[in-house]
Amino acid sequence: MIRITTVEYCRFSIKGRLRLLDLFGEIVFEKVTKTEEVIVFKLFDFYVAVTKDLGINAVVEADPLSSDEVFQFIFLSENK
Predict the structure, then answer these.
(1) Could you tell me the residue ranges of all domains in the chain?
(2) pLDDT at position 70, please?
(3) How confident is the model at residue 79 (pLDDT cuts 50, 70, 90)?
């Protein structure tokens, strides 16, 4: 199976990044607010946050996360 690093992932366009997530990613967290939707995926050995702006109905980011950012998204959001 194909395996890529965060550096290689960042070289793809946003469309390519989303395709990789569709093929190989696993959703670990979702949060929807009035203005945006954030989905955290596990992709190989790193995590990626996809942010969709609901006002324009388009994905605006699909970037890797650090371990601290993953903790903040998943654990702190669930405790609110």
Answers:
(1) 6-78
(2) 72
(3) low
H helix runs in 11-53, sequence order: 14-24
DSSP state of 76: I
Give the Cα separation of 62 and 60 in Å (integer). 7
Amino acid sitting at position 24: F
d(CA 48, CA 63): 5
Residue 44 backbone phi and psi in degrees, to 5: 60, -110
Number of helical (H) and strand (E) elements in the chain, helices listed first: 4, 4
In this prediction, residues 20-35 reach a mean pLDDT of 93
